[in-house]
Amino acid sequence: MSLSANIFKIGAWTGLSRVLGFVRDLLIANVLGAGRLSDIFLTAFRLPNLFRDLLGEGALSLVFVPMFASHKNRNKAGALFASNVFSWLMAILLVITVIALVAMPLIIWGIAPGFADDPGKMYMTVQVSRILFLYVILVCGIAFLSGILNAFSDFARAAMMPALLNVFMIGGLVLAIHLDAGENAIYILSGAVLLSGVTQFAILWQRLRARRFGLCIVRPRVTPQIKTMVKRIGLGFVGSGFYQLNILAGTLIASYQSGAISWLYYSDRMVQLPFAVIGLAAGTVLLTSISDALATKDFNRVYDYQNKAIRSTMMLTLPCMAGLFVLARPIMGLLFEHGAWTSESTLAVAFAIMIQVFALPAMTTSQVFGRTLYAAQDVKAPVKISIISLIIGIVTMFALVGFIGYLAVPVGTVLAGYLRAVWLRTECRRRGLFRMQRSTNFAVFMFGMLSIAMGAGLWWAMSVGIITGIWTLALAIILSGCVYLPMALFVDRKIG
Questions:
Q1: How crowded is residue 119: how many other Cβ atoms within 10 Å of its Cβ?
Q2: Among 279, 374, 408, 440, which is disulfide-ready with 364 (CB 3.0 to 4.6 Å)?
């Protein structure tokens, strides 16, 4: 299947997962409310999510897939390598889980010390956290199995797993409503999370068995490759730590302005949606495709993958950027301006979106160049570039906060994003890992012109009063897409 088709496939599943996640959040608000029970569940659920982000879907996947690509064509060697890594992962997670189950009261006290004022709340949080922490082994195993399937360009089942989690959680919440479970709803929801983990793991394991890939638990052995992986994963953790520091800096700046933390949260959610559907999907496919090409030293194929990915992602990213810039205010107003949400909040979030949305092209192209370096088994360069870019972004935020308040955060984010993208591209070109094709430059220029025209059409529809409600807004977006996409696809085919 073509690169663009695989990106679309993963993006479609990601988009469906986000929609199901929105439904899940609405049901959580309905069943658990926005108080004691929701605080307990969200605090407990944060722990497995942290391990998934840092270990399962973060540094481990980025390091493992390129190393596995050099073994996978030798079935026995690939299975032995994967089995050794898998066994180490399960052993480490088992130790971590046992320790966490015993020390959970201390862990909860450390991440939510305010809960100690309510012994009943603290007790329930510890119990729910112990249940959900069992999901850590499952979710990290799921991420590992997904990485192997992705390495074989088998993306569909791995991409559908987040959506399946949301389906189980929605099912658990509906069951809680049906049973009128009260506080027991939190235990039903936790059980649904565990059951989803078992189901996801079984589906992916069966898929590997169907491919006749001999993954199994073996006695973990310390090999040179394991030592290399540990060093690279350690570097990945450092990069993740600086990313969390960037989030903390933004929260610190926003905390001095009433409502700013919420404004930035919602603006980031809006901008992250197209990035997750487009940019992260492209990054997942490219890591596998480029790793395969580099394993055979086929650099022309690397360049072809990169240029196709840039064209495909920019064809979708640029109209999203134009649409969000023009429609930020009506989107926020029509979706959120109800009850306690004021017109001031709508404007504040809209201004943040209109700035932060310019980071989208940089965020997306960074996936292309960053994944190229990871595929070349270079973890140090992308981590170093990310750290320095984030530091410059944080300095910019603090330098501008006295002049533009909370808007210093999206400005710093945009600056850091472009610095990282340009630097990663320069590093790839310096090593002979990237070559921009003229056709790609022309295509991106045309996508930009078409996106500007689309944005102008949406601004006109808004200024003459055509967009007045949620349905006219949706219709305007759909019609714009129906006009833009055929023209963009025509350009892409002509230069392809």
A1: 9
A2: 279
Task: State the Cα–Cα distance between residues 460 and 329, nearest whole angstrom.
Answer: 14
CA distances, 243 to each of 41, 270, 437 (Å): 25, 19, 32
* Residue 69 backbone phi and psi in degrees, to 5: -60, -30
The answer for 118, left when phi > 0, alpha when psi is -120 to 50, beta otherwise, is beta
Q: Report helix, strand or coil for 18.
A: helix
Which CA distances in Å does 457 have to 350, 351, 370, 465?
A: 19, 20, 35, 13
Sequence-ordered list of residues with C-beta below 8 angstroms from that of 264, at least 6 positions apart, any chain: 250, 254, 352, 406, 409, 410
Residue bearing tokens 């094709």 = 437
Q: Which residues have C-beta within 8 Å of that of residue 492, sequence separation ≥ 6?
A: 311, 312, 315, 443
Angle between helices 3-32 and 281-295 (to 10 degrees): 140
Q: What is the pLDDT of residues 30-63, one digit of tens each?
A: 787 756 777 788 788 878 877 776 665 566 777 8
C-alpha to C-alpha distance for 421 and 389, rounded to whole angstroms: 9
51-102 confidence digits (pLDDT tens)? 776 665 566 777 887 888 776 555 677 788 889 989 998 998 999 999 999 9
Measured in degrees and rounded to the nearest 5, phi and psi for residue 94 equal -65, -45
Over the range 100-109, which residues count as b (16 or more CB within 10 Å of their CB) and which as e?
A: beeebeebbb
Torsion of CA 347, 350, 355, 360, to 10 degrees: 170
Contact 32, 186 (CB under 8 A): yes
Rg (C-alpha) for the chain, rounded Å, is 23
Alpha carbon distance 369, 180 (integer Å): 51
Looking at 70-216, list the stretches that DSSP marks H as alpha helix, in order from N- to C-terminal side.
75-111, 119-133, 135-151, 156-179, 185-210
- Rounded to the nearest 10°, the torsion over CA 52, 58, 62, 65 is 10
DSSP character at residue 223:
-
DSSP 74: S
pLDDT digits (tens, 9 = 90+) for 9-37: 888 888 888 888 878 877 877 787 756 77
User: Please, what is the Cα angle at 448 between 496 and 429, to 5 degrees?
Assistant: 65
Give the count of beta carbons closer than 10 Å to the beta carbon of residue 241: 12
Q: Are 14 and 288 in contact (CB under 8 A)?
A: no
CA distances from 178 to 30, 234, 428 (A): 13, 46, 56
- Spatial CA neighbour of 124 closest among 36, 24, 35: 36
Q: Please give the model's pTM, rounded to 2 decimal places.
A: 0.79
d(CA 4, CA 310): 10
Q: Which single residue is written with the structure tokens 């929701």?
A: 38
Distances (CA, A) of 427 to 8, 54, 420: 28, 25, 10
